[in-house]
Design a protein that fits this description.
The protein is an alpha/beta fold and about 260 residues long. The protein folds into two domains: about 5-115, Cobalt-precorrin-4 Transmethylase, domain 1 (3-Layer(aba) Sandwich); about 120-235, Methyltransferase, Cobalt-precorrin-4 Transmethylase, Domain 2 (2-Layer Sandwich). The chain has helices at about 5-10, 30-35, 65-80, 100-105, 120-130, 160, 175-185, 215-225; strands at about 15, 40, 60, 85-90, 110-115, 140-145, 165-170, 195-200, 205-210, 230-235. Helix 3 crosses helix 4 (about 100-105). The longest helix is centred in the first third of the chain and has 13 residues, at about 65-80. About 35% of the residues are buried. Residues about 5-10 have low confidence and may be disordered.
Length: about 260
């Protein structure tokens, strides 16, 4: 097959969210693509290999590859008419490092599509059996990380974000949990604010540590959790008397599908 014919016959490259870890938390669309792929390039330090255990694809672990090697692998597969899946942890839109890959595929005129996945933030909330939003407490959720080797833009530092008193889902920051907790308090959260750390949410070895901003640091250090963990913070994790029932099912509340009590 010559290069033009192969190019015409090729499917787009698919960026697929593998979910947070449990192999049955990938979407149906994502699983179909993984099971029929010819080439899978996966984030080896994060994605559970059980996700692609039934695939007959060639498997490449991107944890030891640089960006150009990843792009070369995707481009070669595409030009050969292969179904190429770039498998990212959680949902690719959150700290997925997909933008630079897509830019280079654009430069090569290689089409691609994105299949969303289940974020570790959602899996962590499920493990806690909590809603991230709660009437009367928080109607806003912030996904962020603490500045480290990758800086954050002005105004997006932890104390500034904490001033909103929203629910916060903090990625890639558990190794600095003590400093993080201090910055959250500095930004306006009371030390009594509920906090939770979920290590490897939905994996068989999942661990959950709960507490407050005043004690979550020592608890996490005692547990020896240093990476691959989600941090959730906010009053919605333990709603008190300020919480209100949603009006959605209030018998006195009318909407397009139900007449309320006059």
């Amino acid at each position: 097959m010559n290069d033009k014919v192969a190019r015409d016959a090729a499917r787009p490259v698919y960026f697929v969210g593998a979910g947070p870890g449990a192999p049955d938390l990938i979407t149906v669309r994502g699983k179909r693509l993984v099971d029929t792929a010819d080439l899978i390039i996966y984030a080896g330090s994060l994605v559970n290999p059980a996700v692609f255990s039934h695939s007959k694809a060639k498997i490449l672990d991107s944890s030891g590859m640089d960006l150009e090697q990843i792009i070369d692998a995707m481009a070669n597969g595409y030009r050969q008419g292969q179904l190429v899946v770039r498998l990212h942890t959680g949902d690719p839109s959150l700290f997925g490092a997909t933008m630079e890959q897509m830019r280079r595929l654009d430069m090569l005129n290689i089409p691609y599509e994105v299949v969303p996945g289940v974020s570790s933030a959602s899996a962590s909330a499920a493990s806690l059996k909590k809603e991230l939003t709660c009437p009367g407490i928080s109607q806003t959720v912030i996904f962020t990380r603490r500045a480290g080797r990758t800086p954050v833009p002005p105004g997006q530092d932890i104390p500034s974000l904490a001033s909103h008193q929203a629910t916060m889902c903090i990625f890639l920051s558990v190794s600095v949990i003590d400093e993080l907790a201090g910055e959250l308090v500095q930004g306006g959260y009371p030390e009594s604010t509920p906090a939770a750390v979920i290590e490897r949410a939905s994996w068989p070895e999942e661990r959950v540590i709960t507490g407050t901003l005043g004690d979550i640091g020592p608890k996490v250090r005692k547990a020896g959790i240093k990476r691959t963990a989600m941090i959730l913070v906010g009053g919605a994790l333990s709603p008190g008397k300020e919480a209100r029932d949603s009006r959605l099912y209030d018998p006195a509340f009318s909407h397009g599908y139900r007449n309320g009590i006059e």
